[in-house]
Design goal:
The chain has 358 residues and is an alpha+beta fold. It is built from 4 helices and 23 strands. Among the domains are: 110 residues, Methylamine Dehydrogenase, Chain H (7 Propeller), CATH 2.130.10.10; 93 residues, Thrombin, subunit H. Helix 2 runs antiparallel to helix 3. The protein is globular. Keywords: Repeat, WD repeat. This is SPA1-related 3.
């Protein structure tokens, strides 16, 4: 009798209870619903973006102007015109559907990220070996790293990925006087890299000669970020702890403009299709978008982070992604709001933690 009771007790311990099963199902259902919500958001975002682009074109076709000798007569579009518009709109509708499905297929085609290669800087937990910035050159053949070890190291991408070695050596190594915070490759001059450092100096390096050929010393405190314009490679922008953003022209000795802000500037970047607009990530938790022809005030402010905005990047002309020390990434669509302040990001991503190692 005792043995039977013991076996029953053991079985009751090994078989999960209905409460545990239900809790597990609810947990998985919750994750599934979150993913479906993100999918739904991406779907409607893609649809609304492309619908907005074609809306004005369709409206402009609602009236057909017929010209006769010496006069212009406006008439309502005929049924043939309506049919052609419907067919044209149908093609556009399929366009955004195809665009969404293309993105969905890319998303679903990957189940995990795999490390292809690893660069070991001695003891990676040692603060003197921290890498602060990584950037690829124009043709994606080389990439450079920079950090608090005061060195810019240039590596050949294919060599790193295809050759399985424990230690990889840079093809070029350049030493700076101070700790480096950021680098940016020039989109036209393949051998030119801009850098910013902890002493407030912005420099442009010639990789082929392994030396600096331009040095800019107008910032009063540490410079966190520097960026070359893609469409105008003579233009450069930098952001500093002194609360200023400096605009530079490679053909001029000093800065060509200064934007003063109320807080430390942590990140700056040019809009990818013009040299007239930039985005600024600030320590006051906000992102500011400026038209460089009117720098007295931002034309748009993105509000939503609860701590310092440490990084901003344009994904395209109207889409920005931002990173913050509040442990979140936010995706912003500048085209969705005509106002000067946008306080609703398209999506918020969480998972990273802003914790100090060691």
């Amino acid at each position: 009798m005792e043995e039977n009771n013991r076996s029953v007790e053991e079985c009751s311990r090994t078989v999960p209870s209905s409460e545990l099963i239900q809790e597990n199902v609810l947990s998985k259902s919750s994750r599934l619903m979150k993913n479906l919500k993100k999918l739904e958001t991406a779907y409607f975002l893609t649809r609304s973006k492309l619908a907005k682009q074609v809306g004005n074109q369709i409206n402009s076709c609602n009236r057909v102007v017929k010209r006769t000798t010496g006069s212009a007569v406006g008439t309502e579009a005929s049924s043939i015109d309506d049919f052609s518009l419907e067919r044209q709109y149908g093609r556009r509708q399929r366009g955004w559907v195809n665009s969404f499905l293309e993105g969905l297929c890319k998303y679903l085609s990957f189940s995990k990220l795999k490390v292809r290669a690893e660069l070991k800087h001695c003891d990676s937990l040692n603060s003197s070996n921290l890498v602060c910035s990584v950037g690829f050159d124009r043709d994606r053949e080389f990439f450079a790293t920079a950090g608090v070890n005061k060195k810019i190291k240039v590596f050949e991408y294919n060599m790193i990925v295809n050759e399985h070695r424990d230690i990889h050596y840079p093809v070029v190594e350049m030493s700076n006087r101070s700790k480096l915070s950021c680098i940016s490759w020039n989109s036209y001059m393949k051998s030119h890299i801009a850098s910013s450092d902890f002493e407030g100096i912005v420099q442009v390096w010639d990789v082929t000669r392994s030396q600096v050929f331009v040095e800019m010393r107008e910032h009063e405190r540490r410079v966190w970020s520097v960026d070359f314009s893609i469409v105008d490679p003579t233009k450069l922008v930098s952001g500093s702890d002194d609360g200023s953003v400096k605009l530079w022209d490679m053909n001029q000795a000093g800065s060509i403009g200064t934007i003063k802000t109320r807080a430390n500037v942590c990140s700056v970047q040019f809009q990818p299709d013009t040299a007239r607009s930039i985005a600024i990530g600030s320590a006051d938790h906000k992102i500011y978008c400026y038209d460089l022809r009117h720098i007295r005030a931002p034309y748009c402010t993105l509000v939503g982070h609860t701590k310092t905005v440490s990084y901003v990047k344009y994904l395209d002309a109207s889409t920005i992604v931002s990173a913050s020390t509040d442990n979140s990434l936010k995706l912003w669509d500048l085209s969705m709001s005509p106002g000067r302040i946008i306080d609703s990001p398209v999506q918020t991503f969480k998972g990273h933690t802003n914790t100090k190692v060691g």
